[in-house]
FTH domain-containing protein (Caenorhabditis tropicalis), 299 residues
Amino acid sequence: MQFNLVFNNDDRLFSEEELRNLGKNGLVNEAIKSTNEKIRHMENAILPFKNRKNNIRPDFEIHLSMKKRCSDACVIERVKYTGDIHKAAKSLMDFMFTKRQHIPQVNEFSIPEGCPIPALPAQKMRIKHLDLQRKVPKLLELMKPIIDESSFPMEKMTIFFNIQDIQKIDYEFIKNVKLLVIQGTEHLTHSFILKLQNKKVHFDHFLEHFLESQGFVSLIENWVAIRKPIGTCFTFFYYYLNEWRVSLILNHVRVKIEGAIAGDKCVDISMSNSTVLKVSYELYRERHYLLKMAVVSVE
């Protein structure tokens, strides 16, 4: 006979002998403690609904916390709040950003997937990294009025695309970003990539189909034809673990592009007397590969 036990968020099966030893090594008490903690969280989760049903308006506090890297968050200020709990986010924004004498600098402004669209303050902000993980076209329109002009060129923007977003994105706005990181759909097309005017773009998702197709060769031909400036660099995350497979992409480029010269894990295509388009690959995240297109000066 076997029983299924949940302990520390891990499911596993225990044998009869292990079950007999549970009381000896304290696992029973730990399991009870963990279950009670889950019950407490569930009770807290339904408390606002019980209060609304019983017309109870308890006092709340807004906690302003500070966190540095991986350290625990530290509450640096508490503010009494007696308003509507559903408007607390806007009240917190107003508390943090309104009535400031200078434009606040935000190192990273992130709206993760699953997070409700926030009530943004009227105060302008100087943003260094904007991270949008859902409904990108709509969120960009909401963000534009509060991003101060001094933010541009913005250091970094991370955006999560789906296939519907591609038709609605404001390319003129996102071109004012030093490093554009694109996540999301693997169905990014050759025409979409051609519309990107940023000098540095990183595609941080699976694009194997594009990289192994004629579309990648066409992108290289386009860069050579319009003579992209020195410093232009697009990088592509390549999921497959086999080096021979990514090397086949470079070999395909060498065969298809006239005048391409093969090197060590790279292919060089002359663009002018002083510039070369270098297509190369390198190890990425220990086991995957990064394929890179970069316009560099002739050595």
In short: The chain has a mean pLDDT of 83.
